[in-house]
Amino acid sequence: MIRVNNLRVPLDFDFKDLKMYCAEKLNIGADQIKSVKLSKKSVDARRKNDVHFIISVDIEAANEKSIIKKVKGAAVVEPYEYKINRVEGIPHRPVVVGFGPAGMFAALILAEAGAKPVVLERGGDVDSRCKAVEQFRATGKLDTECNVQFGEGGAGTFSDGKLTTGTKDKRMRFIFEKLVEFGAPEEILYMAKPHIGTDLLRTVVKNLREHVKKLGGEIRFNSRFCEFETTNERISYVKYINAGQEFTIETDNVILASGHSARDVFELLYDRNLKISQKNFSVGVRIEHLRKDIDKAMYGEFAGHRALKAADYKLAVHLSNGRSVYTFCMCPGGYVMAASSEENRLAVNGMSCFARDAENSNSAILVGVGSEDYGSSHPLAGMYFQRNLEEKAYIAGGGGYSAPVITVGDFLNGTLTGRIGKVQPSYRPSVKIASPEEYLPDYVCESLREGIREMGRKIKGFDAPDGILTGIESRSSSPVRIERGENLQSVSLGGLYPCGEGAGYAGGIVSAAVDGMKCAEAVIVEAGGLE
Fold first, then answer.
1. Model's pTM, two decimal places?
2. DSSP per residue over 340-361, as a string?
3. What pLDDT, on a 0 to 100 scale, did the predictor assign at position 529?
4. Which of 78, 255, 331, 429 would be a feasible disulfide site paired with 352, CB 3.0-4.6 Å?
5. Is there a contact between 530 and 518 (Cβ–Cβ < 8 Å)?
């Protein structure tokens, strides 16, 4: 099979004619092509008067060697097959703590290896979780154990299901194929910026769960990991609480994939003297524009074309004060979500459904923070810094998980007119006009002002006065790293595998899933199941 890259096709191109198109480009007869399929598809909108697609295709054809010699951008592509070796005779079932992307794929690999993992998920299954999230958005009544952060699918289930990643790990193909097998749209296999959408992702995670169970795995929902015991410097038991009762599981392998918001887990590990270190993360706000305005800014006269979905963007600027401001988790045609998980602390996130057809588009605008900002060398100082800002944001919003909002115009001008223009905040349950100075440090606000103005020079209308800023975006990544060695086990405790975004080893759905697979592989190696 050969891959041909960087082929240009118009927006109106009929992909049913892909075989004939490739034959013409390769200057061969269509009968010489055995099969052809899209490998990658992206939008090239660098010139607003000439928006088109750039595609890569995988082709099976006669005389592939001669095609490679004469066609620029053609190369042999080797199919990737992920092999899972069976394990036999494990004395104790491995435990996976958390059923977000890292925990799901760790459990999947262990189940397919025959290890019959036990998964402890503090939140509910995805259906009960959806009810809890909707109740929170409607009433402001927070369930601290089942919310946007906690429950089946993890935080990614309520953040669009974006699969863009900087990782080049080959395991990605396995992950994408499994997601499609469990109900994700097939286009994620070739779109340059794939996403599943929160609405479809709910079905995907449910199907993955049922597959793990079919293979002998067990998922215990509403089961919060609370303690562990050790024997000879190796983990030997884990404890969890379900319906107010404490239970114990004997095990010598635990994959800890509890997520970046499981602050009680961080405190437990610190109290038990496991090595934890501070990690940089970012804080800021969500910015909202009308979707049609972003589409126009990105696609020009092609905005609204039937072949184009809602436009996205990714921006980063370096500032005069030495800091950087960047956009993160951009949600075209989406909503700003209530993402709190603790009483009297406010956090927001972004979400889109697969259609991405809501009135507004939103993105986090973030400023990096680190040890110099935390004011302490304590390993959990970043977490306490996070909590402090979330408490201030809760107060600025007036309580009841109402979010503080302000127009971009007021923020940039340092005013507080109380005016809301054409962009209506999408956050629920409610909002209150308040300045970010009430909950963010001055250096963050100064950076955001300069950054938004700079971004306005890159995307027309990005700094338009009617845009809405909603705070606080504080859960961009984990504030800690749980130190592990080359064998992926904690440097402080054998058999404990700190995993995924919460442990400081991933930065999104795909990289977390990859890390979950790596940790599962390490457990299998420990059990003698891999060469």
1. 0.95
2. --STT---EEEEE-TT--SSEE
3. 56
4. 331
5. no
Pairing of strands 431-433, 403-407: parallel
Q: Which residue do the tokens 């944001």 mark?
A: 393
Do the beta carbons of residue 19 and residue 63 sit within 8 Å?
no
Between β-strands 95-97 and 254-256, what pairing exists: parallel, antiparallel or unpaired? parallel
The structure tokens listed for 70 are 């004469």
**510 pLDDT higher than 90:** yes
* 520 in Cβ contact with 255 (< 8 Å): yes
| Model confidence pLDDT, tens digit, residues 23-38 | 888 888 888 899 999 9
CA–CA distance, 223 with 208 (Å, rounded to integer): 19
Residues 6+ apart with CB under 8 A from 245: none
Dump pLDDT digits (tens) for 444-496: 999 999 999 999 999 999 999 999 999 999 999 999 999 999 999 999 999 99
Q: What is the CA radius of gyration of the chain?
A: 24
* CA distances for 472 relative to 157, 287, 446, angstroms: 20, 11, 16
Q: Which residues, in sequence order, are CB contacts of 464 under 8 Å at separation 6+? A: 289, 293, 408, 409, 456
Q: Which of 45, 86, 43 is nearest to 215 (CA)?
A: 86
Evaluate the omega torsion of the peptide bond into residue 395 and state whether it is cis, within 30 degrees of 0: no
Quote the tokens at residue 109: 């690999």
Q: Is 372 exposed, middle or buried (0-12, 13-18, 19+ CB in 10 A)?
A: exposed
Q: How far is CA 145 from the centre of its chain?
A: 20
